[in-house]
Amino acid sequence: MSETTCRGRRRLLTAGCAALTAVVLTACGGDTGDRYDTGYISGDGVSTEIPPADRSGPLEFSGITYEGEEFAVAGHRGELLVVNVWYAACPPCRKEAPDLREISQEYAGQGVRFIGINLRDEAGPALAFEEGYGITYPSLPDLDAEIMFTLRGQVAPNAVPSTLVMDREGRVSARISGAIDPSTLRSMIDRVLAE
């Protein structure tokens, strides 16, 4: 085979590889949605309320908060529990944090407890987030997804943030997939308090 033929084949191969690379990059670059730019997939904002007769059995999960305190859902029977799934780098989590702080303080005297479930953060970033936003309720780290496994069917694993309202028996009575709307969450809590 002559050197001219080899050079021609190399050029053809190089041109083919360049064309293939351009096609692949174009295909990958076509989907530039927020989930790729920010590293999270947001919930869609859908809220659902479940009538008492249609609620499934009580949820059971427990863990150690970032402050080192034990927390178990079973220890809060008789109270309403609001569960918020979050992590510090999630933009809608930061957006809803001031509203969650305000609502948690507003309902604290009415037997409503809040607990966070953090999917990604070690103690440093999580506690810095809580301090920065004035969050006074605890959060449980769930880096190994054990709690999320317990919440399967109630919270989509990729919908962050998500919020559940659990009734006095520990059953899910309402859920919000995505950042909360404060008036919607208050209405959900009020309806369960009235049961």
Overall outline:
globular
**Percent range for helical residues?**
25-40%
- Low-pLDDT stretches: 12-43
CATH topology title of the largest domain: Glutaredoxin
Could you give the order of strands across the largest sheet?
1-8-7-4-5-6
Radius of gyration: 24 Å
Report the average pLDDT across residues: 83
- In CATH, the architecture of the largest domain is 3-Layer(aba) Sandwich
Structural class: alpha/beta
Name of the top-level CATH class of the largest domain: Alpha Beta
Please report which band the strand proportion falls in: under 5%, 5-15%, 15-25%, 25-35%, 35-45% or over 45%.
15-25%
CATH homologous superfamily descriptor of the largest domain: Glutaredoxin
Structural domains: how many: 2
Biggest sheet overview? 6 strands, mixed
User: How many extended strands?
Assistant: 8
Q: Termini distance?
A: 87 Å
Q: Can you write the helix and strand succession as a string?
A: HHEEEEHEHEHEEH
- Please work out how many helical segments DSSP would assign: 6
Q: How does this structure look, described?
A:
By secondary structure, this protein is of the alpha/beta class. Helix content is 39%, strand content 19%. The protein is built from 6 helices and 8 strands. The strands form 2 sheets. The protein has a 6-stranded mixed beta sheet with strand order 1-8-7-4-5-6, covered by helices on one side. Strands 2-3 form a two-stranded antiparallel sheet. The longest helix is centred in the N-terminal third of the chain and has 27 residues. The termini are far apart.
